Amino acid sequence: MPSDRDRWNDRYQDPSFDLPDDPIPELERRIETLPEGRALDVATGTGRNALFLAANGYAVDAIDVSDVALEQARQRADQRALDVNWRRADLAETDLETDRYDVITVAFFAALEHLPALKEALAPGGVLVYEHHLRSSDQIEVGPSSDRHRYRSNDLLRACLDLTILSYEERRRSVIDGTAAVATLVARNSHGGVQSYPLLAEPDE
Question: What is the pTM of this model?
Answer without folding.
Answer: 0.94
